[in-house]
């Protein structure tokens, strides 16, 4: 089962930026833990600070992978283009956030992506990614909704 973990802007700074919010571990080291924890999954990871590059990646894998775990960072709250890309693809997307966005700035309480995602996981630190992968691991292909967003 091919699953993409896709991270948006500023998430390349995990382990360095705002450690009180995002922790002290880099995503690259956490990704190695995820690969060990989910050996039956073919996990790939991609990060970009550029909206168009994220859209291109969604288009690239959005008709062939079984799932996408997507942390859109600040684009979550602003990008109609990313929401349109998620709506256009067949692969189910789970939106994740490391911090509890509802305990932060009011503008972070609205997700442009959530209406087109299978679900949203927020506030569990890096474990938010593991929870999303557990969903894909436990669901049979028909339950995941591959080929159908709902």
Automatic annotation (TrEMBL):
Pathway: Metabolic intermediate biosynthesis; chorismate biosynthesis; chorismate from D-erythrose 4-phosphate and phosphoenolpyruvate: step 3/7. Homododecamer. Keywords: Amino-acid biosynthesis, Aromatic amino acid biosynthesis, Lyase. The keyword Amino-acid biosynthesis applies. It is an enzyme of class 4 (lyase). The lineage of its organism: Bacteria, Pseudomonadati, Bacteroidota, Cytophagia, Cytophagales. Catalyzes a trans-dehydration via an enolate intermediate. The keyword Amino-acid biosynthesis applies. InterPro entries: DHquinase_II, DHquinase_II_CS, DHquinase_II_sf. PROSITE patterns: DEHYDROQUINASE_II. Substrate binds at residues 71, 77, 84, 98-99, 108. It holds the Pfam family DHquinase_II. Belongs to the type-II 3-dehydroquinase family. The active site is at residues 22, 97. This is 3-dehydroquinate dehydratase. Its EC number is 4.2.1.10. The record marks 17 as: Transition state stabilizer. It catalyses: 3-dehydroquinate = 3-dehydroshikimate + H2O. GO terms for biological process: amino acid biosynthetic process; aromatic amino acid family biosynthetic process; chorismate biosynthetic process; quinate catabolic process. One of its GO terms (molecular function) is 3-dehydroquinate dehydratase activity. SUPFAM superfamilies: Type II 3-dehydroquinate dehydratase.
